Amino acid sequence: MLYVRPRGAAHRMPSQPVVSIVVPVFDEEPLLEILHRRVVETLERSGESFELVLVDDGSRDGSWDKMCALAARDPRLVLVRLSRNFGQQVAITAGIDAARGEAVVLMDGDLQDPPEVVLEMIALWRGGYDVVYGRRSRRHGESWSKRATAAGFYRLIRWLTAIEIPVDAGDFRLMSRRVVDVLKQAREQSRFGRGMVSWIGWRQTAVDYERRERLAGETKGPPHKMIRFAADAVFSFSYTPLRLATGLGLIVSTLSFGYAVYGALAQGQIWPPAIVAVTFLGGVQLISLGIVGEYVGRIYDEVKRRPLYVAHVQRPGEAASAAAEQKPRLAAVDPIEDESISTSAP
Length: 346
Description:
Elements: E1 19-25, H1 29-46, E2 50-56, H2 63-73, E3 77-82, H3 88-98, E4 103-106, H4 118-126, E5 131-139, H5 144-160, E6 169-176, H6 177-185, H7 193-200, E7 204-211, H8 223-237, H9 240-266, H10 271-304, E8 311-314, H11 316-326
Parallel strand pairs: 1-2, 1-4, 2-3, 5-7
Antiparallel strand pairs: 3-8, 4-6, 5-6
Helix pairs in contact: 1-2, 9-10
């Protein structure tokens, strides 16, 4: 793909970017300027044409205004504004839907995942890999409990599911267009993107990196959201909780029968053990009903078939290009000023 930059314009978008960077944004106004600068500097070093897709997930600060200001200076930005806060996984999905690149990179807006790692990802993608995910070798600025629960979560998911989900890897990854096209067809409501990408398959590999501290702001993942995220991961990719409930029920039933036999043989000792057994069995039943309810609730969400999100998409680069094409030509013009974007099929 070839395009000529006209005089007087800092940037002009090619008709089809090679790389799309998708970043969900929620109350990240202080970081957006730095994020834009580092992503642009990194991708310009790669030599690939690119677009930066910023998804405003119902921010309450001035993030949207800041995004619009950045887009006014750089038409390579694509802005997606969700009508409310739908959550990170849905915001990522909205960004993927808007991305047009042959490779799509997902990264957080807090800059804990360094944009410079994307260069290694692109090199491996060019080498034939369809998915290149970032694997955290160290996690700076996080408490011991946070690191321990994260490590336990990844290993629990790997044990519960039949899918080979990478350990210590978040959403920071590059995906080829054929992986993205399959991912866009999966419109399930309870989304665990890392598992969905692993389920798709094709050639996948890892890039190790050190996760940095946040440069500004605070984490957007309170404990209740992380618990919900973990539940989505388990119940979306595993029937193991149902099997565990069944096994626990069989064990309790066997023990209860044993207590009853023992009480009958001991004469006069049947009621206390029976009461304990019935109480314990009632607790097991409630737990089992709760597990079944999680699956039924997700079925309920799916059969309603509501759209995943409501959003507005802005492509300043396309609007500027369209306006330039509609501009009437004058009889005498500067030949360099009159140069327009020209492309050739790859």
